[in-house]
Amino acid sequence: MKQLIETIVKPLVDYPGDVRVEMDEHDNRIIYNLSVNPDDMGKVIGKQGRVAKAIRTIVYSAAGSHHGKKVYIAIID
């Protein structure tokens, strides 16, 4: 899942080397923390959050029922 997020986000940004995805796993959920260069934040979020919503939709669909855990993506400043 981490690789999927990187594959989606890196072509969108000007600084692909600064893209970081960290997984934080809890009892009933998995949170992927996405960090990008501050100059690229607007590109990842998009107008009215449309790009971020599209990224989340793809990842949620790919995750399905990931061992009974809910998958979330957090975009970190």
From TrEMBL:
GO-annotated molecular function: RNA binding
Principal cellular location given in the protein's record: cytoplasm
Keyword Zinc: no
GO biological processes: cell wall organization; peptidoglycan biosynthetic process; regulation of cell shape
Domain of life: Bacteria
Pfam family, one: KH_KhpA-B
Localization per record: Cytoplasm
Keywords, ordered alphabetically: Cell shape, Cell wall biogenesis/degradation, Chaperone, Cytoplasm, RNA-binding
InterPro entries: KH_dom-like_a/b, KH_sf_prok-type, KhpA
Keyword ATP-binding among UniProt keywords: no
Family of this protein: Belongs to the KhpA RNA-binding protein family.
Primary role: A probable RNA chaperone. Forms a complex with KhpB which binds to cellular RNA and controls its expression. Plays a role in peptidoglycan (PG) homeostasis and cell length regulation.
Name the UniProt record assigns to this protein: RNA-binding protein KhpA
Lineage of source species: Bacteria, Bacillati, Bacillota, Bacilli, Bacillales
